[in-house]
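Hi support team,

I've been running sequence recovery on a batch of backbones for a student project. Most finish fine, but this one hangs at about 90% for roughly twenty minutes before it completes. I'm not sure whether the input is malformed or the queue is just slow. I've pasted the structure tokens below so you can try to reproduce it. Let me know if you need the job ID as well.

Thanks,
M.K.
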């Protein structure tokens, strides 16, 4: 029976993990691509265009963090959501993964059922598109910053800014709030979805990366201590 579900690329050098995920993902209706190292993963991502990548952080020859960096740095693969998979459990490893653009993170040993739920949640977020209101149809512009929400484009002082889907969703939600403060929990719900498993600190990490990319326009994103963030004009 030919599977027609989304393609998932699994990258791990452990045969047992590959077999486990191959079986469970196919059982859940997904098509599965397998890679055992970084170069093979990058080639498969560019050639096969998977809907999502499950990437082990501990790989031979090229670490998963370097693979992630290259994937998010390429125009052909930067929009593919990535779930990091690792035996490490330290928070610093999670922060590094999120700073490089990972959408989620799960630690070995893991429950196949939980991983499938996370895969579905990330795919739902990546594929969701909010209904277009009259306000959203318009292009937002403010002193050198231009944001085309329906077109998913950002321009700062005449230069296009490349963003991950999550970074763009955060920016769009802050802009649409019209100066109201959005809590970290609210931003998690709107940019990641209610069924996500990430921690509130993830918002801080992504806002930090968003500000770095916005450069001079980063001044519009204000931190409200103990509450969250808001987008403010001059």
């Amino acid at each position: 029976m030919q599977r027609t579900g989304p393609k998932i690329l699994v990258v791990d050098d452990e045969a047992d993990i590959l077999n486990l995920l191959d079986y469970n993902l196919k059982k859940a209706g997904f098509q599965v691509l397998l890679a055992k190292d970084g170069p093979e993963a990058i080639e498969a991502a560019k050639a096969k265009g998977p809907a999502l990548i499950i990437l082990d952080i501990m790989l031979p020859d090229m670490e998963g963090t370097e693979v992630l960096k290259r994937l998010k740095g390429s125009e052909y693969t930067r929009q593919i959501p990535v779930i990091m998979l690792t035996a490490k459990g330290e928070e610093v490893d999670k922060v590094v993964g999120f700073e490089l653009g990972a959408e989620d993170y799960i630690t070995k040993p893991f429950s196949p059922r939980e991983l499938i739920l996370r895969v579905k949640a990330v795919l739902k977020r990546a594929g969701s598109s909010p209904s277009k209101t009259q306000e959203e149809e318009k292009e937002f512009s403010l002193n050198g910053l231009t944001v085309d929400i329906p077109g998913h484009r950002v321009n700062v002082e005449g230069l296009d800014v490349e963003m991950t889907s999550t970074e763009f969703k955060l920016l769009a939600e802050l802009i649409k709030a019209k100066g109201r403060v959005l809590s970290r929990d609210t931003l998690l719900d709107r940019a990641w979805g209610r069924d996500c498993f990430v921690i509130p600190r993830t918002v801080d990490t992504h806002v930090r990366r968003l500000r770095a990319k916005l450069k001079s326009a980063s001044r519009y994103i204000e931190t409200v201590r103990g509450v969250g963030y808001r987008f403010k004009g001059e």
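--
Follow-up from support: It reproduced on our side and the slowdown came from queue contention, not your input. Confidence is low (pLDDT under 50) at residues 128-137. No action needed from you.
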